[in-house]
Specification:
The strands form 2 sheets. The chain has a 5-stranded parallel sheet with strand order 2-3-4-1-5, sandwiched between helices. A two-stranded parallel sheet has the order 6-7. Helix 2 packs parallel to helix 3, helix 4 runs parallel beside helix 5 and helix 14 packs antiparallel against helix 15. It is α/β, with parallel strands linked by helices. The protein contains 15 helices and 7 strands. Helix 4 links the parallel strand 2 and strand 3.
Length: 322
């Protein structure tokens, strides 16, 4: 286990009431677990929102201290072929559970990475071993799973955590680890994590290795993200028609803060909607930002593309068509 995984496991919730941000989902699943009669589950949503954690809590609530004997976890992105479904999954599913629960639980993480053939085999396994096994499928995109699997599962869609949820987790960790976080540090952690609790925990652990007193500057340094203040200055120069200063400031931000072009694009996209310009122009600039990001992903030079984007901001500031 790596250093950044230690705190993630250490502070992983072990009970339903300790999970933050997914209150409606928790309420519905808890009632099903208490009735000892759960269907197949599908957890869909972004990374770091509690899908794997909730699967573990369900199993521990069902089986208590015998949960390891009645539970298997597979990462479908690593083991995504049909042989895994035919061998590991089927062999585990056909045996009866220990203790007084009539079924075992199989957790397939990143199930949307399964091949089409593996999904067809999984469909048959889910159908044939309903009496002895329940499946919990976790995925980022439920649409990548075939319809027969989706129809056999009760779907729960997880959402990114809000600022108050991330702050609650950070406060618990800081109290137990004797860390001192400034108010702006909580804002910086939330901005850098983008609602991903696992990323937030990794950030605070990496920062704590440097100092026990944590502020927003340290978080920005560790996350290597472009500071909104720096990006705002770049955009202000561009809208004022000063392309040279906008370009020089952008280069300074990228080199001094060691941020990539994709990080700059994300910061620009967020900053557009705080600019004092007409809503129609904001929409056009957002479209241009998306085009620039696509070109960079396809392999174009980052700084050339960002300069072209700044040129669009200059034209927008002068009231010309973009």
């Amino acid at each position: 286990m790596t250093q950044t995984e230690i705190w993630t496991e250490k502070y992983r919730p072990t009970k339903f009431e300790n999970v933050v941000g997914q209150h409606e989902i928790i309420k519905r699943i808890k009632s099903l677990v208490q009735a000892m009669n759960i269907p197949h589950f599908m957890f869909a949503g972004p990374a770091g929102t509690g899908k794997s954690t909730l699967a573990l809590i369900i199993v521990k609530e069902l089986f208590g201290e015998h949960w390891k004997e009645n539970y298997i976890e597979l990462n479908a992105s690593d083991e995504r072929g049909i042989d895994v479904i035919r061998q590991k999954v089927k062999d585990f599913a056909r045996t009866k559970a220990l203790k007084n629960v009539p079924f075992k639980v199989i957790f397939l993480d990143e199930a949307d990475a399964l091949t089409r053939e593996a999904q067809q085999a999984l469909r048959r396994t889910m159908e044939n071993y309903t009496n002895t096994c329940r499946f919990i499928l976790s995925c980022n995109y439920s649409t990548k799973l075939i319809e027969p699997i989706q129809s056999r599962c009760v779907m729960f869609r997880f959402k990114l955590l809000e600022k108050k949820d991330i702050s609650e987790v950070m406060k618990k960790i800081s109290e137990k680890e004797n860390l001192k976080l400034t108010p702006d540090a909580f804002d910086a952690i939330y901005e850098a994590s983008e609602g991903d609790c696992r990323r937030a925990i990794n950030l605070i652990q990496a920062t704590a290795a440097i100092s026990m007193d944590i502020n927003s500057d340290m978080i920005s340094m560790i996350s290597a993200s472009a500071k909104p203040a720096g990006i705002k200055v770049v955009l202000d120069y561009a809208l004022a028609g000063d392309f040279i200063n906008a370009r020089d400031k952008l280069l300074d931000v990228m080199l001094r803060e060691s941020v990539s072009g994709s990080d700059v694009i994300k910061a620009i996209q967020k900053e557009i909607w705080t600019l004092q310009i007409e809503p129609e122009i904001k929409v056009r600039l957002t479209e241009k930002t998306g085009e620039t990001e696509f070109r960079m992903i396809e392999g174009s030079d980052e700084f050339v593309q960002l300069q072209a984007l700044l040129a669009s901001f200059v034209l927008a500031g002068q009231g010309k068509a973009i």
